[in-house]
Amino acid sequence: MDLRNQRASGNVEDRRGMGMVGGGLGVGTIVIALIAYFLGVDPGAIVNTTEQAGGGSSAQHAPQGAPADEMGQFVSKVLGSTEDVWGVVFERSGGAYRPPTLVLYEGQVRSACGMGQAAMGPFYCQGDEKLYIDLAFFRDLQARFRAPGDFAQAYVIAHEVAHHVQNVTGGFRKMEAARGRASKAEQNRLSVRMELQADCYAGVWGYHAGAMNQLEPGDVAEALAAATAIGDDRLQKQTQGRVVPESFTHGTSEQRMRWFKRGLDSGNPQSCDTFAAAGL
């Protein structure tokens, strides 16, 4: 990505180095993080089980604003790009975009959803409208899942921002209401539709980022490779040797790649209505 002319967002809370647990992240922990994130483990459910762990990072004295280090700057500029894009998109539809805060942390973190851990991977918390990322996730995304490139990392951020878009537009509330009346299998199918919509919204951001000359040759291929690498079918095959479609929560590799590209090609969030799509 070419972010040289992109302003860095000030909506970043840097909690790195505050309450690091265990001195670092083991390979096993990071693998669990990737699987948990991409197989749709509910952050709220996990954090509640770790609430008694104690410690953790407090946001009280966390620096607010764009960090000075290279990765901190990259994350801040990607977030700034999503703010610029969604601000315009909301304005065109007569609304006003309320940007989220991105929290950088290491090891574990306290959120409005409870105690979060790196083993959860990047997640969005509705309670405080913040997205949480341990940057170790990006290193393993490249090394173990062979999804390298800065645009693949930006895609992950844009996907979590897309969940915030779903939150402020009421999508989360509608899904929660539907889940309350649904069986486990139907809840999983609703989750797939929600996640594919977030992939499509991430593509909408990518379309506008391209219009702002922020994409470079190969960037789209990086994002499509990442979407392919993190499909439920592929991850299940890698981790348990078999595929169980009824347990899918994010969608297959083909679905994730297709819906991301749909948003990328159209630049229109109206094209991302996965809940109205008959066969996905």
Give a verbal description of the structure.
This protein has ten helices and six strands; from the N terminus they run βαααβββββααααααα. By secondary structure, the protein is an alpha/beta fold. The protein has one domain. The strands form two sheets. Strands 1-2-6-5 form a four-stranded mixed beta sheet, covered by helices on one side. A hairpin with a 2-residue loop joins strand 3 and strand 4. Helix 5 crosses helix 8 and helix 6 runs antiparallel to helix 7. The longest helix is centred in the last third of the chain and has 28 residues. It is globular and about 45 Å long. 43% of the residues are buried.
Short synopsis of the structure:
This protein is an alpha/beta fold and 280 residues long. The chain is built from ten helices and six strands; from the N terminus they run βαααβββββααααααα. Strand 5 and strand 6 (130-133) form a beta hairpin.
Indicate how many domains the architecture comprises: 1
Q: Helicity level, as a percent range?
A: 40-55%
What pattern of helices and strands is seen along the backbone? EHHHEEEEEHHHHHHH
Q: Give a count of the beta strands, DSSP E runs of length 2 or more.
A: 6
Question: Which parts are unreliable, with pLDDT below 50 for 5 consecutive residues or more?
Answer: 20-30, 42-59
Report the total helices: 10
Structural class designation: alpha/beta
For the largest sheet, list the strands in their spatial order. 1-2-6-5
- The average pLDDT is 83
Strand content: 5-15%
Q: Largest sheet at a glance?
A: 4 strands, mixed
N-to-C span: 30 Å
Give the CA-based shape.
globular
Gyration radius (Cα, Å) is 18 Å
